[in-house]
Amino acid sequence: MGESDRYSEYKLPKKNIFNLGQDGNALVALFTINVIFFLLLLALQVIYFYFQSDSILYNTQAVQFFELPAQLTKLSERPWTLLVYMFTNVGTLNALSNMLWLWTFGYVLQDLTGNNKVIPIYIYGGLLGAVFFIATNYMIPNLKLFVDDSFLVGSNAATMAIAIAVTILIPNFRFFRNLGGGIPLWIVTTVYVVIDLLGLANISTAAFALSHIGGGFAGFLFVYFLRRGKDGSVWMNNLYDWFMNLFNPHKKSTGHSVKEKIFYSVGNKNPYKKISTVTQQRVDEILDKINQQGYHFLTDEEKDILKRAAEAEDL
What we know:
The protein is about 60% helix and about 5% strand. It is mainly α. The chain has two domains: about 5-240, Rhomboid-like fold; about 265-315, no CATH class. Strands 1-2 form a two-stranded antiparallel sheet. It has a two-stranded antiparallel sheet with strand order 3-4. Helix 9 runs antiparallel to helix 10 (about 185-195). The protein is globular. It starts with a helix and ends with a helix.
């Protein structure tokens, strides 16, 4: 059974594991960062207008520190924009639209795979989208004429990566199941892609649309390598954990205890088959693991516990 098959059989536990207030919620973290940058730009805009500065001055002095320049010399002067641009949405309508699509696809991806893959896919999409944006501005003659004044901003490429990744993993996931059987995820993604790529028809926005294609390609590559046993999120999550624990004296040990090494090291054979007691605390721990890592990371024992817990509730 392939990984995509396992995802297609996945059903959400009866307990709602998607809680806005839970620790380590990757999707909420993305929303928070996007909102912070949006409010920061909004505050700067108010300040500029308060001092009667025109919009051109606001764009050249403030927004440029958040935008990704296509011109490589300018990029070398503002390298942080490679990351910052993908969290910056200019304009209320644009911000609301991007956050709605991010929620639509990110919600499904997080419930399927846990918290550890949402942000890495988002960042991969933003980075490859930046590469596509810069490359097309230099490679397409009509765009190269304006490379000095071309800038990229917005979460579109990163959101596209999440949309493509989750659609490849489980294309037949359905929204609004109570309405005629629901709307398949692949149809929602198709509508999103068509709307997003309408910019290809206009030369002034073609580079932006091509960057979104780069983001989608990043989502495709992530799932492609994931199915072959190469998880591109591991190093990023390990780096984050290392940084967060750098000054934490109470880090949890990941090594095995002496008891486990001596009494449970019996090669590939189990000394006995143990049947774990189903307790609410144990069920909660398993649900937390699903939330953090995804259902397919559960052991057979943990899946059996969830199954028996569900059967007990049905009695």
